[in-house]
Amino acid sequence: MEEKEKGRESPKTPPGSPSHQPPPPPPPAGPSRTSRAPRAFGSQVTPPPPPPTSTNQDSG
């Protein structure tokens, strides 16, 4: 049964994807420093309204 070694055939990464892909770029330092002053950030940008209770208006 071990002779097949089917596990070795299929690597963790899916076929076609480069196993040696570079890591994602770091986030911009812009919003990073704004978090230091939450009072200023919240004053300029208000949180988005809650989602509509009725799914009917979801399309609109």
Automatic annotation (TrEMBL):
Residues 1-60 are annotated as: Disordered. Residues 12-30 have a biased composition (Pro residues). It comes from Tanacetum cinerariifolium (Dalmatian daisy). It comes from the Eukaryota. Residues 1-11 have a biased composition (Basic and acidic residues). This is Uncharacterized protein. The lineage of its organism: Eukaryota, Viridiplantae, Streptophyta, Embryophyta, Tracheophyta.
